[in-house]
Write a structure and sequence with these properties.
Distance between the termini: 50 Å
Helix content: under 10%
Strand content: over 45%
Largest sheet: 8 strands, antiparallel
Radius of gyration: 21 Å
Low-confidence stretches: 1-20
Number of strands: 16
Shape: globular
Length: about 250
């Protein structure tokens, strides 16, 4: 059997002998609209979307679709409603739709994009989670701020097992020309062998950088860099992974 993998213009196609099977291109409005119609969702350009093939289910493409819901008479105010849609690209049908109850907030800190994360978040020997990363940005010039949240989902049981975890964060106080105090934090999740409630513990490993910028627009230099590391363990309580109280304000949005 001859199998060819072809990538062209962002459109992934699998060609197996004379039969063609397509994963949809999420940048193609007509393709995306057709899939969403099967899920009883109407496509809009104001919505956010990302698509990925699931590594452990290669015939399934997961579509994360966040619908903008504005307040009555206030089109600029609202939040997003997230759906996780499983698309079987062998028979061109929606095989599952999980509509997440919790809305995605977008206010002074704006939700700009979403990304599926299909890393090996193995919750136990038979269950693997799927991540959704939420990219937020503030638009204050004196206080620039951005962060990336990570939510983990158990799609077998349609539930969120990690909620609003701040995995990356950037914040600063600046005069908008050069002088600034800056802090950056980047974290990774490492699945452990220890368990609670039959779910593996998760170690959070964070690298934290603090530094100052001094000078003017033409001569702006970084000074007094400080680097540190932080580690903590998340344990499953039967419903979700819980953040230790001492770190909750830092790591949960």
């Amino acid at each position: 059997m001859k199998i060819t993998l072809k990538l062209a213009c962002g459109f992934l196609s699998y060609i197996v002998t004379n039969t063609m099977v397509f994963a949809i291109d999420c940048t193609n409005e007509s393709q995306l609209s057709a899939v969403l119609k099967q899920a009883n969702i109407s496509y809009s350009t104001s919505d956010l979307v990302d698509c990925k093939i699931l590594p452990n289910y290669p015939n399934t493409q997961l579509i994360a679709y966040a619908e903008w819901r504005s307040e009555p008479h206030e089109p600029e105010v609202g939040d997003y409603v997230l759906s996780l849609i499983s698309w079987n690209h062998q028979n061109n049908t929606v095989s599952g739709v999980y509509r997440v109850k919790e809305t995605l907030v977008s206010d002074a800190i704006v939700l700009e994009s979403i990304q599926l994360d299909t890393a090996a978040y193995q919750l136990n020997s038979s269950l693997r989670a799927v991540g959704v990363r939420l990219n937020y940005r503030g638009h204050s010039q004196p206080n620039p701020f951005s962060m990336q949240l990570l939510d983990l989902y158990d799609l077998n049981n349609n539930r969120k097992v990690l909620n609003n975890f701040i995995i990356n964060r950037y914040q600063a106080e600046t005069d908008t020309r050069c002088n600034a105090d800056v802090e950056e934090r980047k974290s990774v999740l490492i699945m452990q062998k220890t368990k609670k409630q039959n779910f593996f513990d998760i170690q959070i490993s964070s690298k934290i950088k603090k530094y100052e910028m001094q000078g003017d627009v033409e001569n702006c230099q970084e000074i007094q860099r400080q680097s540190s590391q932080q580690k903590l363990i998340l344990k499953f309580d039967g419903q979700q992974y819980r953040m230790p109280k001492a770190f909750k304000d830092e790591y949960v949005y």
